[in-house]
Specification:
- By secondary structure, this protein is mainly beta.
- It has a single domain, classed as Lipocalin.
- 12% of the residues lie in helices and 62% in strands.
């Protein structure tokens, strides 16, 4: 590879990453009531829904959540917006929202292996005590797509740094923890997919989600 072609290769690789780093503070992350999805994205529009089961000592508390997510991807860049209602024992129903941005940094259109840089911001408001919490996960997603005659099987793994900012009466505090999510997508030739995901956050019980998605 000549020096000129090497520079061109680096620009092609670093260009999308630079755009991602610019977008992350603006678009910000996954909904705090849902697992952080690290399965990447395919060009086009995708709509997904999921049900989440939260452990007794999970970050949101013991309960269940229903979430909806829309993802739009163009080339190597993707943006997802999500909303969720979760019911926690003793605390009634609450709502959370989030946005996630990502860029594919490794892998071509026909490569079974792919690596994504992921980041975003999610938020929950608590009207009872006028507090708010923002969640900012930053990490990577590693995917492996295994095609079969009827469907594709895509296991994925997504380690992250999970930062939390809690605001109350004009004061705020930051906390950072290690997080890890993993899952598998089963996608039919029609674009309809079944999903399962597991999300672990240090010092908390994990959460588990099952859902479905449709690509257009």
């Amino acid at each position: 590879m000549t020096p000129g072609s090497t520079r061109g290769f680096r620009r092609r690789r670093l260009g999308p990453l630079a755009v991602f780093l610019f977008l992350t503070p603006v678009l910000g992350a996954q909904n705090p009531a849902l697992p952080v999805y690290g399965g990447g994205f395919a060009p086009g529009l995708e709509l997904a829904a999921s049900v989440v089961f939260m452990g007794e000592e999970s970050r949101m508390g013991d309960g269940t959540a229903l979430g909806a997510t829309g993802t739009l991807a163009i080339g190597r860049l993707g943006v997802a917006a999500s909303a969720a209602r979760f019911d926690v024992a003793g605390n009634g129903g609450r709502f959370g929202a989030g946005v996630q941005a990502g860029v594919k940094v490794v892998g071509g259109d026909f490569s079974p292996l792919a690596v994504f840089a992921l980041g975003g911001i999610g938020t929950i408001e608590d009207d009872d005590d006028a507090s708010s919490t923002q969640f900012v996960p930053l990490g990577m997603g590693f995917t492996l797509t295994l095609p079969t005659p009827l469907l594709s099987i895509k296991p994925w793994l997504a380690p992250r740094l999970d930062m939390t900012r809690t605001s109350f009466q004009g004061e705020s505090d930051w906390n950072s923890l290690f997080g890890l999510s993993a899952g598998v997508d089963l996608t039919l030739l029609s674009g309809f997919a079944f999903r399962a995901a597991y999300d672990y956050l240090k010092n908390y019980d994990p959460i588990v989600a099952f859902g479905a998605a449709m690509r257009f």
